[in-house]
What we know:
By secondary structure, this protein is mainly β. Helices cover 5% and strands 59% of the residues. Strands 1-2-3-9-5-6 form a six-stranded antiparallel beta sheet, with helices on both faces. A five-stranded mixed beta sheet has the order 11-18-17-13-15, with no helix packed on it. A four-stranded antiparallel beta sheet has the order 10-12-16-14, with no helix packed on it. Strand 19 and strand 20 form a beta hairpin. The protein is globular and about 75 Å long.
Amino acid sequence: FTTVAHRLAGRRVLGRLSFGDGLEAMILDGKSGGMLIAWNESGLVAETEIELYLGDNPVVMDHWGNRTPARAHAGRHHIRLTKTPIFIEGIDPELAMFRSLFRVDSDFIESKQKVHHRTVSLSNPWPHTMTGQIILTDPQQWVIQPRRTVFSILPGGTQEIPISLRFPASEVSGHKQLTARVEFVTTRKYVVDVSNVVELGLHDVKLDTNLSLESDESTGMVDLFVNLLVVNKGTEILNLRSFVIVQGRPRQVQPISGLHPGQSIIRRFRFGDVSESIDLATIRVGLRELAGPAVLNQILTAHNL
């Protein structure tokens, strides 16, 4: 711990960097050079890995002071993260700040089949002008316009880039990585990937699902039941179509008519004799607005039983 305290001495915190899925880092800099303190904040997975270019010769140090050169492959450093923070020295602090300053003006996108307008922001933490291009790469199945934009940003400046987004009707709700490759020149030439987490969902609709297996005494078979709880959180009456798709079975559909604000309703779907296929089944559930653009998809598996 004395070693760690010594390494931190004289360094100041510049900002925070998120890699998504609970993987976080603090950016530090000082006379001893740039440093990241990185950890897995969610703890949902005991150990996970990030892949990105951090600098010319980064070194990973654990809390005991053990030092190891960062493992590199194809121009990216591979860093394993757990709930216990690690210390990465020798990073490019301006590059880390550039990643942390990549922004989308609103990180919630309504799951509606229409064009969504957003603004992407790039900021220049270097003491020199940066010029280059940004290419939006993911989600690949989304229609993003423009995909490519050139830019020139003065030191300490920011450039805002308007974009439009549209996703397939089959897109599953939840968190997505809006990722871009940025190629630019400032104190040197860089080619880096940056990302921002956005969430796809509906503010006015809550959908909870669960699965259950039940034995049918009359047939001796095992049946699968998929239960949907739908809550109207908005101010308008909803008319929806609920559906469930089980691999290898016909789609099942049930209407939800006249669901008033504050009301909830349950829809139950039965699939008979799944004993031989349930381990392989992928289950898609969802809602579709009857006279509007809203559509909400979720994916379940047998692990949700």
